[in-house]
Amino acid sequence: MSEQGKGSASASTAAPAPGSDTYKGWLFKWTNYLKGYQRRWFVLSNGLLSYYRTQAEMAHTCRGTINLATAHIDTEDACNIVLSSGGRTYHLKASTEVERQRWVTALELAKAKAIRMMNDQSDDSGDEEPTSQSDRSELQGTLKILISKLDDLSTCNDLIAKHGAALQRSLSELEGLKVPLEGGEKIKAVNERATLFRITSNAMINACRDFLDLAETHSRRWQRALQYEREQRTHLEETIEQLAKQHNSLERAWREAPTLVSSPPSAPTNNQGSERVRKEEASDEDEDTEYFDAMEDSPAFITVTASESTQHRRSQSNLSGASGGQASDWNQDDSMSPSCNDVSGKELQPRRQRRTHIPDKPNYSLNLWSIMKNCIGKELSKIPMPVNFNEPLSMLQRLTEDLEYHELLDKAARCDSSLEQMCLVAAFSISSYSTTVHRTAKPFNPLLGETYELDRLEEFGYRSLCEQVSHHPPAAAHHVISQRGWTLWQEITIASKFRGKYLSIMPLGAIHLQFHSSGNHYVWRKVTSTVHNIIVGKLWIDQSGDIEILNHRTKETCQLKFSPYSYFSRDVPRKVTGVVADSGGQAHYILSGTWDDKIESAKIIQSSRGGSGSEGKQKTVYQTLSPKLLWKKYPLPENAENMYYFSALALTLNEPEDGVALTDSRMRPDQKLMEEGRWDEANSEKQRLEEKQRAVRRRREAEAADALDEACSLSPGREYEGYQPLWFHQRRDSLTGETNFVYKGGYWETKERQDWSMCPDIY
């Protein structure tokens, strides 16, 4: 019988019927993101729910307790139970729906009984004495002081009443004397004030008497509440003391561990991974013997980091042919092959000093709803927006920002193993989203024929060129060639919709990457970006969807999943997971991390089929080596929050360059004015450029109509080609079967000649 089956059996046989004083059984408890749900032994007794790892632990170690009298019981689905009390929350899962219902019934009855006991102890307890002599003496002393103060107040009240009455008599006598009319009015006013004073003093003493009566009535309730808090404090102190003892014992065990486990001197990098494994084993909620899956919306696999001894034991037997037996695979110390780490091909060149800041963003307020309320459902590229919602970069420059972490491709080009290369390519595809986490502003829509070049040949060995090849729909073509062994090209069409509360941006088109030496050709597509809280609240951006990276030469794949953010999800925000598999579908590497911080990879040394989830889907459990860092986001420059959250590369994209084309985005006047903080002028210039572009489009449409009329007439007509980009032309891709724009050459040669006469006048 499986462990899960045993748990179910134990729960059904060992637990008495709900409603009895004690209820026991196995439940699955959520522990952490690595282990998921783990099986624990729960005991419900006297209104307290406690849990243990095993039944044997009941004699000495309690892992946690929650008081049902103040707990909230919730049921998420067929098998889940959520208990929350104060800042503590337990996410539990029963093996079956019937078992879940038994536990819920028992918990509800225990909660009702605990509340009833608390009320019985606090209310209607006038005849019950305090729990200790010291508490009773303290209470009696407090009441005596209150009574004494009340007597003092009563004495003062009597004196006030006596003197007030005398004062009123005197004033009445004065009223009877013959005094001027004005003096009589004043005496009458004083008499009225004396009467009000006496009434107020009587009200004060009555309120004090009511307070004392209330204090006497509720004193025992306060005493019970105080006693309960003292018991909770004592229980907490005992728990902390127990945890401190366990921590000390685990610390001693950790110190003694290096003497028991022999580590080869040739693998120094594994010490860190072993230390991490030992720390995880020391955790209260981590176990090495049981791996159960009970997550509903989790990935289709579970990863378990192997211990050091397990790595050495299984490395030669279980998956000796996992990567084709190549010597260049990640070895046992979890480092990349020497070919990937070789830096002989990266010549260090003196770098040009580039700018590190731009003018601070002005603080202009604008009512977004007044502009957007009439734009719901329209294509984003057709909405006229002021520059207040933009950042001083065009979409072509944002596309170029994909090269922020180009060194990942330089490293991948030196890899002999295509699987290792795939991991680095996947990290590169994820890294392109890291610059978007705080970038909620909209880039400028490029004008038709607009270009952008990024020449980093001397510094980093690559040259990049983008051109806006279509305006409706907006499409940009991008081509990058590197002297360090790779070429990247893509055509991206942006489909975007404003939905009232959020904005969806869906990049359409494939990204191609080819390595010169191996001929490996990778193709993938981007995920959907969503900007939330467009109307109300703080803007924030999220990435969601799946990416499949395919090596068309070897048929190896990488499946990446970008998990959408959910308030109710227990996943890490912006989480990305992935599996690298060979052409036969066998998994070799696990990728995990977040798209805004870092990505790690772990080599799989063993896989097995796990238990079935609630939907009957069986999940795979992967045992891996210690994770290895593939990519880490660069920190943002200083004062980035006032510079549109630009990265170090983004700050240089508008920096003036000598000899660029007349259509380059650096030359765009509205964008330059916005960067300088002159937003009013930028808005006027933006409207001028857009109207100029519309006039050119209308002229083209008129020419196309004239050509069509001539073709339909008796006379031979002339052929109208329409707009043709300067540096890209359409070709059918043999791998994807799609027709897209690819670089046809000539730009860099034209730049050397400085002959830009063919460039259109778009600015």
Automatic annotation (TrEMBL):
One of its GO terms (cellular component) is perinuclear endoplasmic reticulum. Residues 119-138, 255-359 are annotated as: Disordered. PROSITE patterns: OSBP, PH_DOMAIN. SMART domains: PH. One of its GO terms (molecular function) is cholesterol binding. Residues 20-112 form the PH domain. Residues 260-274, 316-342 have a biased composition (Polar residues). Keywords: Coiled coil, Lipid transport, Lipid-binding, Membrane, Phosphoprotein, Transport. InterPro entries: OSBP_sf (IPR037239), Oxysterol-bd (IPR000648), Oxysterol-bd_CS (IPR018494), PH-like_dom_sf (IPR011993), PH_domain (IPR001849). It is found in: Membrane. Residues 226-253, 679-706 form a coiled coil. The keyword Phosphoprotein applies. Belongs to the OSBP family. This is Oxysterol-binding protein. It comes from Nothobranchius furzeri (Turquoise killifish).
